[in-house]
Amino acid sequence: MVLQQRRRRHARKKELVMSELEGRSCGDCTACCFTHEIAHFKKPVATHCGQCETGKGCKIYGQHPDECRGFKCLWLLNAFPENMRPDRLGVVVDFVPEEKVKMKVTVLRMYEVWAGALESVYAKALLQGLMTQKCVIILKRLQPNNTYGTEIVVSPSYEIECLEEKAKAAR
Question: pTM here?
């Protein structure tokens, strides 16, 4: 029993060190534990994970499922400043995996951690900054019944590229 606890602690420390070497670590942020589905636990979107201690972190960190281990929000990848950590901003931003996208464009998702978070000044500024890139952004607005409403926003540069391609095809 004691040996298992030591191994778990060692695995957790190793993972934290690796995350820190890569840039940032989740720390006590648990925003994605709320916003994202976790099939391993049959946890739907917009509900708290049973392994999550809000404000403290994952109770089984170091032994958490591969889908949690592999998840990286854009804040964790150093794409945003420190003050835009998802649990502070109220928005988790991630990439849609390339294999799921059938277009030659970056697709991002912005999930609200709490209702109305996408309307904050900081979230709007973040969205405006992202819109300068060639991308499609899927806004996931938290609904009263703990589901997400979806709105798709296309950046002007990608929209222009699509129109140019259609014009070439029509010639």
Answer: 0.80
**Which of 32, 135, 45 lies closest to 85 in space, CA to CA?**
32
Distance CA 4, CA 126 (A): 43
Which residues lie closer than 8 Å to 13 by C-beta, 6 or more apart?
A: none
DSSP strands (E only) in the chain: 52-53, 57-58, 91-95, 106-112, 135-142, 148-154
E strands within 39-160? 52-53, 57-58, 91-95, 106-112, 135-142, 148-154
- What pLDDT was estimated at residue 22? 57
CB 113: neighbour CB atoms within 10 A?
Answer: 21
Residue with tokens 């309307």: 119
Q: Which of 131, 122, 125 is nearest to 87 (CA)?
A: 122
> Between β-strands 91-95 and 106-112, what pairing exists: parallel, antiparallel or unpaired?
antiparallel
